[in-house]
Structures are given as structure tokens and as C-alpha cells.
Amino acid sequence: MKVTALRRYPVKSMLGEDVSSLTVDERGAEGDRRLALLDIETGRVATAKHPRRWRGLLSYSARRGPDGVTITLPDGRQVTADDPGIDELLSDLLGRKVHLAGERPAGAEVERPAPEDVLEHGVDAEVDYQLLEISQGAPGATFVDYAPLHLVTTGTVDAIGVETLRYRPNLVVSTPPDFAAYAETDWVGREIRIGEVRARGILPTPRCSVPTLEHGELGRAPQALRAPIAQNKVDVPGFGMLPCVGAYLEVLEPGTIRTGDPVRIG
């Protein structure tokens, strides 16, 4: 097995960027999910997990350069994250007052409807949601969903039949043709050597409705959720029975991960 793609997402719930290497430590990948929008009214983190309210974020993209983060708006305009008018601009475009934050507030929460409800009733429906504290498995003040790193395999995504980027992983690992789909579920508790980095699987990755939504020019893909609902519902410790794709990792030994690096499971 080897790393076939690396991605980071400078702003939570916006599209990210492919990179050839990622420097990682116990907080995760450098430049990954270091920024997020906070809803001024509720104080919660804006995420496309609540598609009726925030799926439009997936029409924005963010990249990180030497001078900071640049956001590309849906109309193609670009603005830097440190622009003094960024909050007003994004609030006007999104129709809701937001603040682009660089540090996660203590106990930060997101609104997460059950993905089955979104599939049944549609992305514009008023459905119940639960409040979920993010970054429970990660140190520091980043805006990761749970853990520092997120990994998926080509064997899993190929079996589902959708684009890998819908699952927003940091690492995509190519697997042999006979490798079982959803094998990452069994990597929880095992050490994973990725190039010079040593990590450990700590949780199967529960899926929300985000993979089914439009991602830039990609249309909707209900199959991205229906397949794991039918094929890989897992008892996720602390969260219950949930459809899972991929694995969350903690970093035991920091370093740099590069495309092409070998991946070994301990």
C-alpha cells in the first residue's frame, strides 16, 4: 500500500487543495482546518453537515500559500483570509452573519442532522439535528471533526463508486485489487506507519450527509451515503451505530508524509 493523494482543507467545509506533502504533528496536518466560520447568532461552527443552512460552503475553496490562506468565492473572485472586510463579505454572500475564526472556542459545536433524515427528506427540509462537539480526539485548537488525520483507501471508495474527494480525507491510500472494502474499519487500535510518520487508528469515520452534496462542479451523489448505510454500519464508541467510511488517526511520531510513501499496518 502507498499514499496516492494528500489533501488539506484550510477552511472547514470549504473545498481544499491537493498537495505533494503534508507535515503532521499531534494536532494534525499543517494548515489543515485551521480556520472556520462561526455563526454569530448561535456561536456554533458552520459546517455543511447541516446542508439546509451551510451546504453553500462547498462552492467555496481555500488554499494555503506563503502569504496565508486565499479563498476563492463561487463567482471566481479571490480574497485573502486576513482581509479586513472578510467577515462582512462572507456574511453578505451566505445570508447569515459569520466570523472567520483562527482558533476553536472551547466546547465548539456543530449542528448534525442524521444523514438518513437528509436522504429521506432532502437537503432543504427542516429536520432535527443534534449538537456535536468537534475535535474530541484532537489536541490544540484546530477545527477537525474528531481526530488529527483522516484516511480512506481506494479499495473502499472504488467499491462505493464515487469520487474520493467527497469524503474529505487527508490521506488516500491505494490498496491492491483484492483488498477488502472498508478495511480501514479494522485498523482502529493498530499502529500505521506512513513514510516517516507513525500513527494509530482511533475511530472508524462516521459519515454525515456531506459526501452526497454538490462539491464545486460535482453534482449530488446519494450513493456516497447509501452504500455505507447498507454495507458498513459500525458501532462507533461513544456515538452508536453509524455508517462509516475511512478511519481517524492520532499521530504518535510526527514528520512529513509524501505522495508515494509506503503504508504499513502493524
Automatic annotation (TrEMBL):
Show the PROSITE patterns listed in the entry: MOSC (PS51340)
Pfam families xref list: MOSC, MOSC_N
InterPro entries with a match to the protein in the record: MoCF_Sase_C, MOCOS_middle, Pyrv_Knase-like_insert_dom_sf
Q: Which GO terms describe its molecular function?
A: catalytic activity; molybdenum ion binding; pyridoxal phosphate binding
Domain MOSC, which positions?
125-266
Q: What is this protein called?
A: Molybdenum cofactor biosysynthesis protein
- From which organism does this entry originate? Pseudonocardia asaccharolytica DSM 44247 = NBRC 16224
